[in-house]
Amino acid sequence: MAFSLRFAPPLGLALVLAASAGLAWATGADVIQARREGMKTMKSDVRILSEMIEGQGVVDPQTAARSARSLGEAARAIPGLFPEGSARPPSTARLAVWADWAQFTDLARQLSDAAEDLERAAVNGSFEDASDAFVRVTRSCRNCHRAFKED
User: Fold this and answer.
1) What is the rounded average pLDDT for all residues in the chain?
2) Per the annotation, does 131 bind a ligand?
3) Within a domain: residue 8?
4) Which of 16, 35, 71, 80 has a CA between 20 and 30 Å from the CA of residue 105?
5) Is 73 labeled as ligand-binding?
6) Is 16 inside a domain boundary?
7) Cα–Cα distance for residue pair 75/116, rounded to 1 Å
8) CA 75, CA 24: separation in Å to the nearest integer?
9) Is 141 known as a binding-site position?
10) Under 8 Å CB-to-CB from 107, ≥6 apart: which residues?
């Protein structure tokens, strides 16, 4: 049986409608919970990496790479977790997120880039490169929270 493109337009419309429904869901109260959970995951990843970098735990390159990968994935998801109009309680996001969207997304990109470098350093077994990338990770987090998070 030959593949037919006559079903492509209705299928395309169905996919667009499904994506729109997902976006509508994401703009509800659940998006605030999703980003809070994402931040908790990133905090856990940073804690694991910090203990290794600071010599407080066993240095395990596979665990470090896994945590760095998780951190990078979460960083790439950040902009999508801040749709317009989601600055209501219990969110601690400042309105500056949307007023200075370019800086906000740039900081998320910097975090993602640093996490990728950290993952690569862990895989390659380069403690010095991992330490340098970890400093960039924590700097990105700190700069973003200072500018865009209520205390």
Assistant:
1) 84
2) no
3) no
4) 16
5) no
6) no
7) 10
8) 22
9) yes
10) 140, 143, 144, 147, 148
Cα–Cα separations (whole angstroms), residue 8 to 11, 17, 21? 5, 14, 20
Q: How many CB atoms lie within 10 A of CB 42?
A: 23
Q: Evaluate whether residue 108 is within a structural domain.
A: yes
Asked whether residue 37 is domain-assigned, the answer is yes
DSSP for 17-86 reads HHHHHHHHHHTSHHHHHHHHHHHHHHHHHHHHHHHHHTTSS---HHHHHHHHHHHHHHHHHGGGG--TT-
Give the position of tokens 């470090």: 64
Q: Name the domain count of the chain.
A: 1
| Domain span holding position 97 | 31-148
pLDDT tens readout for residues 82-107: 999 898 888 999 999 999 999 999 99
Assigned token pair, 25: 């869901």
Q: What is the mean pLDDT of residues 116-121?
A: 97
86: domain CATH number is: 1.20.120.10
Residue type, 133: A
Give dist(CA 100, CA 89) in Å, integer.
20
CA angle 140, 34, 11 (to 5 degrees): 110
pTM: predicted TM-score of the whole model, two decimal places: 0.78
